[in-house]
Design brief:
Length: 125
Amino acid sequence: MNRVLDTKIGIPITLSVVYLLVGQRINLPLKGIGLPGHFVLRFSFGSSHVYFDPFNGGKILSRSDCEAIVKNLGFNFSEDYLQPVSNKQILERMLRNIILTLEKKEDKERIETIRQFIDTLNSDL
């Protein structure tokens, strides 16, 4: 996270987490939206929602824009994709992104450690 703040570079979910944390500090109603292949945020006021993309300069997105992102990445769109994800789901997604990076480096030991952490995260402790 410090690296993201220092370099102002990161993947969509990491940049979104920075926005979420700042939003929480100032009581903004922000939620993470886990689109397949891309992560955005939702700002809610009343029954209205505005989506935005921290990775693309905070670009404001409509529901149709979110649908286009999903389809352009080769997925079928579902309204469920626009539902907020939990902090636990965000953490798991970030960990799975790390696994993808480690697979390219063939770092089996660290991959297994992270998989065990994910299993523990998803277990009923």
